[in-house]
Each structure stands twice: as C-alpha cells, then as structure tokens.
C-alpha cells in the first residue's frame, strides 16, 4: 500500500515538473509559495458493510484539541499565460461517539475513529484571458489518501471490543476553472471550482479567496477565504467494506511569498 502511495506521489511530482519544463526562451517565471491554515469543520459518515457506524458534524472549535498533525502548502509557478500548481494537505484527527440502539449493536456502544486524510494535487493551468489576472482553465491529478481505524466498545450484555480499519489511496483527474480580478490597488479576489473523476465515487472542490499585497513590490501577500471539499470513498479490507462520505468546509488564512 505505502509503495503504491509513494509511486503515485512520485507521479504527481513528475506532473508538476513536466509543466515547469518547457521552451528555452528566457521568459521570466513568477513563483508563489503560500503556507496556510484551513480552519475546517468536518462532516464524516462511515458505513461498515452497509451499516452506519460513525457519523459526526465537527466544527473547528471542537476539533482543535483532537488534531494530531495538520500541514498545508500551496505552490504555483506561472510564465506568460501558462503555469503549474501543487497543493498539499495532511490532517490527522480523532473523534468518539456513543451510538443509540442499532441491532445487533446495543445502545451505549462507544465508537472511536482515528482518521488520517491526505489531499495532494498537481496540475497545470492556462490563462484564457488577461495577464496578471483573468480566467484560468485548471487540469491535473489529485491523490486522496485515507486511513481510518474504527474501534467499537460494546457494553453488556455483549461486553466486547471490535476493531476494523481501512486504508487506501485514490487518484482522480481534476478539471476546473479559476477566475481572479483586482479590487483596487492592493486587494484582489479569486474563485475556483473543480471536479474529480477517477477512483473516488465523487469529489468536488470550491474556493473563494481574497488577497492583500502587504508591500508595494507585491512580494508579500495576506490571503484568506473559504474552501469546500466533498468526497465519497470506498475501501475494502478483507471481507470488510468501509464506505466513507467526508465533507470539509470552513475559512482559511495564509501568507504568500511571491518572487
């Protein structure tokens, strides 16, 4: 599994490098690096062999103390009307829930979920109109890596503990649009929407963002906005089929370095 994940990540990197390779013309590249924090709420539902096992609506204020690791980075390069981008997100979190009676599970069954989610994008874009802003056509690939562990603590009269886990990675081709425009001398905005098609059941991504140039040279940018991502995944481990429906949504803020 991890070897396959490594190969797919390598393929993602190759895609990004392929877009950066090009003609020998001495035309200037513009580079943009933005580490950011996505204050995402999570809605997750998991079904084990068709039976609902875990469902939770979790806002950012509820999961801050449950996040084990969170790392997010966006990198982009552009020359003239064409360019490439990568976006990397990794989130590890845990949650617990007490289930009502759901035969054969009695009421009071405790479910603990450990979820590791990675979203890794690499692709290119072509600016249909405009120079520093305008309409971009986005295309590329997204790797979704999900590892989930479910532990069931079943009370009396059964009094037992059961565990199940699922781990898989999914590769989608992504196609979308992005539009950006200035809002005065230093402010600007961008809207992005895309869909994934491939190994996931479905994947939808939408972003609305605003930016502010902190200096006259435009080297430092404060960026903020709202992001929505929804995906449906199906993972099999032996005779156990785990279906996961996950939605992440909420505001984000980042600081960009342009050179």
Please write out the topology.
Elements: H1 2-20, E1 30-38, E2 41-48, E3 51-58, H2 60-63, E4 67-79, E5 82-99, E6 109-127, E7 134-154, E8 160-183, E9 187-198, E10 202-213, E11 220-237, E12 240-258
H/I helix tally: 2
**What is the gyration radius calculated from CA atoms?**
21 Å
Q: Which strand order spans the largest sheet, edge to edge or round the barrel?
A: 1-4-5-6-7-8-9-10-11-12
- Net shape: elongated
Distance between the termini: 38 Å
**Low-confidence runs of at least 5 consecutive residues:** none
Helix content: under 10%
Tell me what portion of residues adopts beta-strand conformation. over 45%
Biggest sheet record: 10 strands, antiparallel, barrel
Q: How does the helix and strand content classify structurally? A: mainly beta
How many strand elements?
12
State the order of secondary-structure elements, H for helix, E for strand.
Answer: HEEEHEEEEEEEEE
The overall pLDDT, averaged over residues, is 81
Outline the structure in words:
The protein has 259 residues and is mainly beta. It has two helices and twelve strands. The protein has helices at residues 2-20, 60-63, and strands spanning 30-38, 41-48, 51-58, 67-79, 82-99, 109-127, 134-154, 160-183, 187-198, 202-213, 220-237, 240-258. Strand 11 and strand 12 (240-258) form a beta hairpin. The mean pLDDT is 81.
